[in-house]
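Exercise 7. Given the encoded structure of a 355-residue chain, write a plausible sequence.
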């Protein structure tokens, strides 16, 4: 049974998002292309979950959670089939990706750095997944996931006492714990185990996948520079616990909370997408429609992670997009930027309505 559960987890958290991410193209090849597919596919799926889940939370019924799972399954299947069609059309070379993943480093120094980077990554995953840490917010978020997985209700049971309560629409606008509950229901593994053991391993790896993509854009073909960049980041994360509220602390000890995903994955990935925008405009080109789709989906994922995420992603989009407009005089991207911010703006208005 445990082997089947692990296989389902790998399928849901790694394989399916990577397949769905084939819709998007970063211009990368090999390993970096695979990492971009994984992260962008997860953004696409999480954004879809947000759009499916929130309306059902705000319209409570006894079996809404079951409907969320069914609709999300249909959405995921459609995304994977679309991605397969796009990938076949592009004739993407999978052998190149596999060969680069397992290819040894030609440079001895780069090879040693690669070993250190992988060793520190595994160390952080093992420590985050095996060591107990007292985190007060888990009393709410993990309890919400457990209650949702064991019932068909969402945000209608008080997690501290188990008693019935009115609809908690304020927290329901960012239903990341419900996503954890869905993973628990689909795999048969307890929600607390998903939150405290499984997600730290997966999401820490995803965070460093984003950082690896950022390093690739910053250092281009300088492999040593890319690896030094990742190594420095890992050291900063390991020794970044000087406060309970640092992004490093969130990544290692609050990994299963949406606010940690926002701080360590969504916001850095948004910076990467804005970098793509500046790069395209610098070349005198306009980003393709799938870029705007991914940017919009990333904004929606920020709303899923935290209610404050609606403010952060809108602010980041406004500042980054505004700089692109004024620096390159590309006024025609304003409607596209505005379209990417429609859902976060709507979530912000709903938050004000229910707060």
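Solution.
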């Amino acid at each position: 049974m445990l082997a089947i559960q692990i296989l389902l987890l790998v399928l849901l958290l790694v394989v399916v998002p990577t397949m769905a991410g084939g819709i998007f193209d970063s211009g990368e090849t090999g390993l970096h292309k695979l990492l971009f597919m994984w992260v962008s596919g997860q953004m696409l799926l999480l954004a879809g979950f947000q759009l499916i889940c929130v309306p059902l939370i705000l319209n409570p019924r006894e079996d809404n959670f079951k409907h969320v799972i069914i609709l999300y399954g249909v959405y995921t299947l459609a995304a994977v089939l679309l991605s397969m069609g796009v990938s076949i059309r592009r004739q993407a070379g999978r052998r190149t990706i596999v060969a680069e993943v397992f290819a040894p480093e030609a440079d001895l120094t780069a090879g040693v750095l690669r070993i250190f980077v992988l060793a520190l990554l595994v160390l952080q995953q093992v420590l985050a997944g095996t060591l107990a840490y007292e985190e007060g917010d888990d009393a709410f978020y993990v309890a919400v996931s457990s209650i949702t997985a064991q019932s068909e209700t969402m945000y209608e049971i008080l997690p501290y006492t188990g008693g019935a309560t009115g609809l908690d629409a304020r927290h329901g606008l960012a239903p990341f714990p419900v996503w954890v509950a869905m993973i628990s229901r689909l795999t048969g593994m307890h929600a607390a185990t998903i939150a405290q053991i499984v997600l730290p391993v997966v999401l820490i790896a995803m965070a460093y996948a984003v950082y690896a993509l950022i390093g690739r854009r910053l250092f281009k073909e300088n492999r040593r520079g890319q690896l030094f960049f990742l190594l420095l980041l890992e050291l900063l994360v390991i020794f970044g616990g000087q406060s309970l509220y640092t992004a490093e602390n969130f990544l290692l000890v609050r990994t299963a909370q949406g606010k940690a995903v926002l701080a360590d994955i969504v916001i850095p990935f948004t910076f990467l997408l804005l970098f793509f925008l500046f790069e395209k405009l610098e070349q005198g080109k306009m980003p393709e429609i799938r870029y705007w789709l991914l940017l919009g989906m990333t904004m929606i994922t920020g709303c899923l992670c935290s209610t404050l995420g609606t403010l952060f992603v809108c602010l980041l989009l406004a500042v980054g997009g505004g700089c692109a407009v004024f620096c390159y005089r590309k006024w025609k991207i304003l409607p596209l930027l505005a379209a990417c911010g429609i859902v976060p703006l709507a979530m912000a208005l709903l938050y004000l309505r229910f707060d």
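Remark. The radius of gyration is 20 Å. Students should compare their own answers with the one above.
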